[in-house]
Design goal:
With 194 residues, the protein is of the alpha/beta class. It has two domains: 33 residues; 158 residues, 2-enoyl-CoA Hydratase, Chain A, domain 1, CATH 3.90.226.30. 34% of the residues lie in helices and 24% in strands. The protein has seven helices and nine strands; from the N terminus they run H-E-E-H-H-E-H-H-H-E-E-E-H-E-E-E. The chain has a five-stranded parallel sheet. InterPro entries: LarA-like, LarA-like_C.
Length: 194
């Protein structure tokens, strides 16, 4: 948990005490606490991540309750990314199911029992929490997830994600209350100060 650090304990009580201390230290090192919900957050993804499969952490690291305001938007900014997954069979599966909430995906898996559970988990994690009405087929989300990548607008919308031209985004436009430009590849988890 801590670079060049160690927590140790003897027996179960020692293990639990060491675990709690490590968790406390980790929450100080790996969580960024913000004062108010964000209306828009841009996660800048490094070129080491070449597909949405790995860049998706830029979305789920911002999904703690209250971090993104109702009606807010998470933007994954990675102009170099051209695909959802570099393996064609997984890319096809992602395009087949799309990015949806847990309720939708659960129903999809009941109808398609052989579908990859890993792909199913990924689409839920990237899209975030929402509700699904199986009668109407309608999903509702508290916030939107938008790609500003090399993936076309049609492809983004076809899988249930928003699209922005990456050339239209400028760091200086994301300063001020309720806005955040994050230059760290989804490295940190975000939470509201309590």
């Amino acid at each position: 948990v801590i670079p060049k650090g160690l927590y140790a304990g003897i027996g179960i009580d020692g293990f639990i005490a060491a675990y709690k201390e490590a968790a406390k230290a980790s929450s100080k090192l790996n969580i960024v606490y913000i004062d108010q919900p964000l209306h828009v957050a841009v996660q800048v993804i490094d070129e080491n991540y070449d597909e949405i499969w790995t860049a998706g952490k830029g979305s789920y690291k911002l999904q703690r309750s209250g971090v993104i305001a109702n009606g807010g938007e998470i933007i994954i900014y990675a102009p170099h990314i051209k695909c959802f997954h570099s393996k064609p069979e997984i890319d096809t599966a992602l395009r087949q199911i799309g990015y949806h909430c847990k309720g939708y995906v659960q129903q999809y898996l009941r109808s398609n029992p052989g579908f990859s559970k890993n792909v199913a988990a990924h689409v839920i994690n990237v899209r975030g929490p929402g509700t699904y009405n199986s009668t109407t087929g309608k999903e509702e989300f508290a916030f939107s997830v938008t790609l500003a990548t090399g993936i076309s607008e049609d492809a983004c919308r076809a899988v249930g994600l928003g699209y922005k031209d990456p050339n239209s985004l400028h760091k200086e436009d994301f300063r001020g209350p309720g806005k955040l430009w994050i230059q760290n590849d989804g490295k940190y988890l975000y939470d509201i100060k309590k």
